[in-house]
Amino acid sequence: VDTAEKLSKNGCASNYGATQISVWSMARALNASIPPLTNPMTPSMTFRNSNAGRISGVALVGVIIGGALALFLVVALGVVPYFFLHNTRDNNLAPKELTDPVTLIFTDIESSTALWAAHPELMPDAVATHHRLIRSLIGRYGCYEVKTVGDSFMIASKSPFAAVQLAQELQLCFLHHDWGTNAIDESYQQLEQQRAEEDAKYTPPTARLDLKVYSRLWNGLRVRVGIHTGLCDIRRDEVTKGYDYYGRTSNMAARTESVGNGGQVLMTTAAYMSLSAEEREQIDVTALGDVPLRGVAKPVEMYQLNAVPGRTFAGLRLEHELLNDDEDQTTTSCSDHSSSRTDLSVAAQTIAASLQSLLGTFTPAQRQKALIPFCERWRVPLPQKVGNVWDNDGCQEAIRRVAAKVGRVMDFGTRKASSSVTSLERGGSLFSAGGATVATVASSSNFSCVDGRCGTVQLIDLENDSTTS
Q1: Residue-range definition of the domain harbouring residue 9
Q2: Are residues 291 and 413 in the same domain?
């Protein structure tokens, strides 16, 4: 009992360990007077795991899978929302106070209809790049994208200087971007040469420049920009969940943009004087004097922002503004959004009827699937849909919008073709870019496009074929 109590005190009663260990002989086991072979001792027991500090294969696989899942969650919860929000309007940046002046920016691509007619395979990607570059600048300068219509942007800013910086950087950004082709620049130069041949008083600002000089000043799409500052009627659109700006300020900004040339930035005196003296010292402007604008009672004092030093421009497009010429309309004032059947040209109505007949046997879901690529490639806004599938009205609206855009391009080609045929009848020649002598003649259906790129056309080799149909 004494031994058991002693062992209990030493923590060995449950046989969890041993203390006072000694080695006895068999004789000692039979005779207690014989001493043990070794003196009693309590060893220090340290247990070691041979796999300590190592990871098993199964555990390693688990760590890899867990790490991959964690990385996926970071991407899903962080990066994806970033890109989603990056491509949407941030209403926090929208000017909302009715008593605070708003600076509005309107942009438009010069000769976009002609470019679509000449390069239908290039323009979808070029316009997508145009949108991406401008949206990156909107975010950089804390401005607000009000809307895009076709090739045009309407942008609002609480800060006049931020708006001016955006417009200046836009021109530099487009100049230094790699567009991957010279076709757009060649088309702009050809358009200038054609106008010079038709108008003896017109001097092409870029078509006759030395190649090295041209490359320092011009590259890719040419975007004209108009800026105006003033009070607006501000409304929140319950459909788009965004803010829109109405009234005289909006009209003035749009008119300012419409008289400019591609690559030119115009601002009204109201926008220029909204800048502080220090801000005005940071920009280079040229006073253009009073400029008459359609729908404005008195001429408006205008300034040109010299975003790219050395650029020269043709005279302001006052005749286009006053006559409301529709060859190269400012798409913010003539939208693809509302294209009723009666508003469509003959060519556009034929396109719409063809699409309706072609897709009439499809279900709404199939029609939507077929129409979306056309809308995306022609940069036509999609109709508002109810649920996941467009209804019949939505499909009809998409068809009308596509037909309106393509119809304008085809009408442009028809006018150019008619002009070319007229010049040929007078003894002139029309040469294609590759050097072959050709003429584009509209067929009886009035469908044609520049260089036979779309529609129903006839190409005639003037040297080898003297007959026409």
Answers
A1: 1-38
A2: no
108 is in an annotated binding site: yes
Q: Which of 411, 257, 205 is nearest to 326 (CA)?
A: 411
Is 49 contained in some domain? no
| 318 shares its domain with 387 | no
Instruction: Read off the DSSP letter of residue 93.
Output: G
Which residue, of 323, 352, 381, is where some domain finishes? 323
With H, G, I as helix, E, B as strand and everything else as coil, classify residue 392: helix
Q: Long-range contacts of range 285-291, CB-CB < 8 Å, 24 or more positions apart?
A: 288/316, 291/259, 291/316, 291/318
Q: What is the dihedral of CA 8, 11, 13, 15, to 10 degrees?
A: -170
Task: Give the tens place of pLDDT for each residue, 130-157.
Answer: 999 999 999 999 999 999 988 899 999 9
pLDDT 10s digits, 73-94 = 776 676 555 444 444 578 999 9
Average pLDDT over residues 417-428: 54
Q: What are phi and psi of 262, to 5 degrees?
A: -60, 135
Q: Which residue has the higher pLDDT, 415 or 112?
A: 112
Give a yes or no: residue 365 inside a domain.
Answer: yes
Same domain, 109 and 167: yes
Count the Cβ atoms, other than its own, within 10 Å of residue 277.
Answer: 6
How large is the greatest C-alpha to C-alpha distance in the chain, in angstroms?
144
3-class secondary-structure state, position 233? strand
The encoded tokens of residue 232 equal 């607006």
Query: 151: annotated binding-site residue?
Result: yes
Tokens of 348: 């556009």
